[in-house]
């Protein structure tokens, strides 16, 4: 238990963290990677360069300070991060390293304002929070390894098939090289893929949603090739997978992880809403519903720029034709002439609330959505405007967690 004095000290730092949190976490990563460059084998370099990891950590530290007298309030966030840590291979011995450099960063950024009393309180608090993570992750490591078909850390998989799904998305069908069984997973979960790109000093690890139902003799991931833009570098791993990984090659996978999962015990209608490559966990959920829950009403809504980049459309259309309980709708931002001729979509432009109301028959449903952050912000705001309860809204970020608050009011 954290002492009452330490609780009050931590709470007094909340306003400071709100202002200086990202500066502190940026300095933290600089210090830690300088002292422990081996940790660059674990962390996503792209998220570091774009500042997404620093912002996500700052939000976690802020939330921990805000709820330091009731850490149960941040337990969902702890479990979400713990899933990611387990899939990356974060171990108990990493936590003292993180704690040491976080305190150093607080001292560096705040200077004399970071008194010995404040640093002592944060050291005490960090120890309690770290123990919570270590305990949760120990259970996850044990479950991942000892479940039927499970394994520890990373396991070699062979690319059995590689299928181009659209101009920018390819699917990889992966089977274990050892010929053994593979663990089941829950629809919506992901695996970490570890690759060594020729010429790069450090290993890269990325999370990719499993894009099929469980129970198959393979895992399938569907990867978007992230092309470079002036404000964003190209995806190092996605381009490597698209350009250099072929059928017969080897990839190293973690056991499935993640807490963005379809509630299969909820008998109410379900609405799946995706944008771009955010459709990958939705396809896993859709396939699961089609195979095992044929009486549950399903509305599948996908937004894409146009048919050129719309993956798995034929598959979804075939499911909708086969299952009367399943309906599919597509929104194209900039349809091609061919899209128009073929009437390949249901709405032009962007998804909006009036259109959602026109295609969702029963709003008393469970909603799952995934896609680019601005897309999810818009969907989240639209559904809340409709009066959908918070408990029925489920979403996942690809990468570090961000805010779904409208940009103008986001902290």
Describe the structure.
The structure is a single chain. This protein is α/β, with parallel strands linked by helices. The protein has three domains: 4-146, Globins (Globin-like, Orthogonal Bundle); 155-253, Elongation Factor Tu (Ef-tu), domain 3 (Beta Barrel); 270-396, Nucleotide-binding domain of ferredoxin-NADP reductase (FNR) module (Rossmann fold, 3-Layer(aba) Sandwich). Helices cover 42% and strands 17% of the residues. The protein is built from 13 helices and twelve strands. The strands form two sheets. A six-stranded antiparallel beta sheet has the order 4-3-6-1-2-5, sandwiched between helices. Strand 7 (270-275), helix 9 (279-292) and strand 8 form a beta-alpha-beta unit. Helix 2 (14-35) packs across helix 4. The two termini are 30 Å apart. Residues 407-411 have low confidence and may be disordered.
- Give the strand line-up of the largest sheet: 4-3-6-1-2-5
Content of β-strand? 15-25%
Overall geometry: globular
Number of helices: 13
Question: Low-confidence stretches at least 5 residues in length (pLDDT < 50)?
Answer: 407-411
Binding site for NADP(+): 276-281
Family: In the C-terminal section; belongs to the flavoprotein pyridine nucleotide cytochrome reductase family.
Domain Globin: 1-138
Enzyme class: oxidoreductase
Strand and helix map with partners:
Blueprint: H1 4-12, H2 14-35, H3 45-50, H4 52-66, H5 75-88, H6 94-110, H7 116-146, E1 155-164, E2 169-176, E3 190-195, E4 204-209, E5 219-224, H8 236-244, E6 250-253, E7 270-275, H9 279-292, E8 298-304, H10 313-322, E9 326-332, H11 337-342, E10 347-348, H12 353-359, E11 366-370, H13 373-385, E12 393-396
Parallel strand pairs: 7-8, 7-11, 8-9, 9-10, 11-12
Antiparallel strand pairs: 1-2, 1-6, 2-5, 3-4, 3-6
Helix pairs in contact: 1-7, 2-4, 2-6, 5-7, 6-7
GO molecular function: FAD binding; heme binding; metal ion binding; nitric oxide dioxygenase NAD(P)H activity; oxygen binding; oxygen carrier activity
Catalytic activity: 2 nitric oxide + NADPH + 2 O2 = 2 nitrate + NADP(+) + H(+); 2 nitric oxide + NADH + 2 O2 = 2 nitrate + NAD(+) + H(+)
Protein name: Flavohemoprotein
């Amino acid at each position: 238990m954290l002492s009452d004095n330490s609780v009050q000290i931590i709470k007094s730092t909340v306003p400071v963290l709100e202002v200086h949190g990202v500066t502190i976490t940026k300095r933290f990563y600089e210090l830690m990677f300088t002292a422990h460059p081996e940790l660059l084998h674990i962390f996503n370099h792209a998220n570091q360069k774009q500042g997404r990891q620093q912002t996500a950590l700052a939000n976690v530290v802020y939330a921990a300070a805000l709820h330091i007298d009731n850490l149960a309030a941040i337990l969902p966030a702890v479990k979400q991060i713990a899933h990611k840590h387990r899939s990356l291979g974060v171990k108990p011995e990493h936590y003292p390293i993180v704690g040491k450099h976080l305190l150093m960063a607080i001292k560096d950024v705040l200077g004399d304002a970071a008194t010995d009393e404040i640093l002592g309180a944060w050291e005490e608090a960090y120890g309690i929070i770290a123990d919570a993570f270590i305990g949760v992750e120990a259970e996850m490591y044990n479950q991942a390894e000892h479940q039927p078909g499970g394994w520890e850390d990373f396991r070699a998989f062979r690319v059995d098939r590689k299928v181009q799904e659209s101009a920018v998305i390819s699917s990889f069908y992966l089977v274990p090289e050892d010929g053994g069984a593979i663990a089941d997973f829950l629809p919506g979960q992901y695996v970490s893929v570890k690759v060594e790109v020729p010429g790069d000093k450090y290993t890269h690890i990325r999370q990719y949603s499993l894009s099929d139902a469980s129970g198959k003799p393979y895992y399938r991931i569907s990867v978007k090739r992230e092309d470079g833009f002036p404000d964003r570098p190209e995806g190092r791993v996605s381009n490597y997978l698209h350009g250099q990984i072929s059928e017969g090659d080897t990839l190293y996978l973690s056991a499935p992880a993640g807490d963005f999962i379809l509630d299969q015990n909820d008998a109410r209608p379900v609405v799946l809403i995706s944008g771009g490559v955010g459709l990958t966990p939705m396809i896993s959920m859709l396939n699961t519903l089609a195979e095992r829950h044929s009486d549950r009403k399903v509305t599948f809504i996908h937004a894409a720029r146009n048919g050129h980049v719309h993956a798995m459309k034929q598959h979804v259309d075939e499911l909708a034709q086969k299952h009367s309980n399943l309906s599919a709708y597509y929104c194209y931002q900039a349809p091609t002439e061919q899209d128009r001729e073929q009437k390949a979509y249901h709405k032009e432009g962007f998804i909006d609330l009036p259109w959602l109301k026109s295609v969702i028959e029963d709003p008393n449903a469970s909603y799952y959505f995934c896609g680019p952050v601005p897309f999810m912000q818009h969907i989240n705001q639209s559904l809340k405007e409709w009066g959908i309860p918070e408990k029925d809204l489920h979403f996942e970020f690809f990468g570090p967690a961000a805010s779904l608050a409208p940009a103008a009011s986001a902290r």
